[in-house]
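Ops channel
N.P.: pipeline sanity check, posting one input/output pair.
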């Protein structure tokens, strides 16, 4: 049936092409033919009888390449082909890109302009979906590297997920050597050993760590130095274009937001980062809690030793943490329940009970693990207070979405418990509308934020810096 329809369409197209050819020849011969030319362009011959939704279905079956060709046949086909719904369908069904339609629409609506994000219109209506589809097809593949302080995730922008992960310290080499040579070794290893690609072949999108938290001149200088070192290293390796963005901003984009508070539970510390329109609000203040993934693993190890659960490797403890641990909705109530569960690691079967939720509880009650630090809800509430006091916008909605990121944030129950405690802690005016979003792409959340950017129709133009631009740019522009 489909073949028959396509055959008919093709005949109609050939007919129309020859008619419009002879028509245009006639027009060349005589300039008095306007009426006949307009009647040709608004008719599609035998297909005039077919309802437009069926014609649209035919175009869907033809696929994007052939459908685009149809637009040159006549005005009617052109208007059918330029219908946004057709290209939304093609965008939704692109096999090679793996980006969800919602993420494509978010990115094309809010991130097209590049950083700094332009005042948000929130509208895509001024762009044609056909144009966006065409531009996205032309975007070159890029390498994405999220060099976390514990684990590095790397891969291709056109792939569904990172192609690999490795322990960052292994790639960096001697900690004593200068920053430039450590970065050089890091990138060289990722390019040549891990991904086996030439640095000069494609742009790179890089997540840069949330570090040097303050808004002081010294912190700004350190951030500038790090960013300069990253760009210098990559351009020395002949990478054609570089886009380096803060890890927390990327996590926020992955959650399809441009404003909010990102809570990144990192390898060693947890950072609470307020972001407005894609920019870290350092003036408002980044809160840092001295608790991270390492501490949780260490605490579970202590609990297991105390409870005579014998293991050989710390890797086993980490595996148990990732597979059995969770955050209790109500800690005291959980202590009274039977919470036994078992998991088979490389060393055999292990059964944990209270350890399962006591491990994650240290994020809420750090003193359990002997850590003198604020609990996570208190630190987030403090950040919200600072955002409120700063009066950066007419209302408080921009910081009421809290996006979790980092592997530890994948602990089941964490988002719900944090949201519950924030509602209890904040004043009624602040607490209404607070939403805590679990890491949208688990451990790889920042990597996916980078993927959204690298598949944008305006990439690399609006997001990357070339070597030439880097040389010309003043140092002040490198602060992020
Ligand atoms: N489902 C899970 N539950 C609990 N912990 C997890 C889970 N998945 C991963 N992790 C932990 O997350 C940690 C790694 O997190 P992540 O990859 O975010 O670190 P990172 O990016 O190196 O940190 P940083 O943000 O400091 O750069 C590991 O300790 C791992 O055990």
């Amino acid at each position: 049936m489909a073949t028959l329809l396509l055959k008919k369409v093709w005949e109609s197209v050939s007919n129309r092409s020859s008619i419009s050819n002879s028509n245009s020849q006639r027009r060349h011969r005589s300039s008095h033919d306007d009426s006949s030319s307009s009647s040709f362009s608004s008719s599609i011959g035998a297909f005039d009888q077919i309802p437009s939704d069926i014609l649209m279905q035919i175009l869907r079956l033809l696929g994007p390449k052939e459908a685009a060709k149809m637009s040159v046949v006549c005005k009617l086909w052109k208007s059918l082909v330029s219908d946004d719904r057709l290209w939304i369908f093609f965008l939704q069904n692109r096999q090679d890109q793996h980006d969800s339609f919602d993420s494509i629409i978010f990115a094309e609506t809010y991130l097209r302009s590049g950083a700094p994000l332009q005042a948000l219109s929130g509208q895509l209506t001024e762009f044609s979906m056909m144009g966006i589809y065409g531009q996205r097809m032309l975007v070159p593949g890029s390498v994405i590297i999220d060099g976390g302080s514990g684990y590095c995730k790397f891969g291709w922008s056109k792939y569904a997920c990172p192609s690999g992960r490795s322990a960052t310290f292994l790639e960096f080499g001697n900690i004593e050597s200068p920053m430039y040579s450590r970065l050089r070794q890091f990138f060289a290893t990722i390019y040549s050993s891990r991904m086996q690609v030439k640095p000069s072949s494609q742009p790179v999108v890089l997540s840069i760590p949330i570090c040097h938290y303050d808004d002081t001149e010294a912190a700004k200088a350190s951030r500038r130095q790090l960013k300069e070192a990253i760009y210098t290293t990559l351009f020395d390796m002949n990478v054609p274009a570089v886009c380096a963005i803060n890890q927390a901003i990327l996590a926020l984009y992955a959650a399809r937001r441009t404003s909010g508070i990102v809570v990144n539970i990192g390898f060693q510390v947890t950072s609470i980062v307020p972001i407005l329109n894609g920019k870290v609000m350092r003036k408002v203040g980044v809160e840092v809690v001295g608790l991270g993934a390492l501490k949780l693993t260490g605490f579970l190890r202590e609990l297991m030793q105390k409870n005579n659960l014998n293991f050989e490797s710390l890797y086993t403890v980490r595996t148990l943490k990732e597979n059995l641990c969770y955050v209790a909705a109500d800690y005291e109530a959980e202590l009274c329940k039977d919470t036994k569960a078992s998991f088979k690691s490389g060393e055999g079967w292990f059964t944990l009970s209270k350890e399962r939720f006591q491990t994650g509880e240290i994020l809420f009650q750090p003193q359990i693990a002997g850590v003198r630090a604020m609990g996570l809800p208190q630190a987030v509430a403090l950040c919200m207070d600072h955002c409120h006091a700063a009066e950066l916008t007419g209302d408080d909605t921009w910081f009421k979405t809290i996006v979790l990121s980092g592997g530890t944030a994948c602990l089941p129950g964490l988002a719900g418990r944090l949201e519950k405690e924030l509602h209890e802690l904040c004043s009624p005016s602040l607490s209404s509308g607070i939403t805590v979003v679990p890491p949208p792409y688990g451990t790889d959340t920042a990597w996916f934020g980078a993927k959204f950017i690298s598949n944008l129709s305006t990439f690399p133009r609006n997001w990357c810096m070339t070597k030439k631009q880097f040389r010309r740019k003043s140092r002040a522009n490198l602060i992020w």
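N.P.: looks fine end to end. The longest strand covers residues 270-276.
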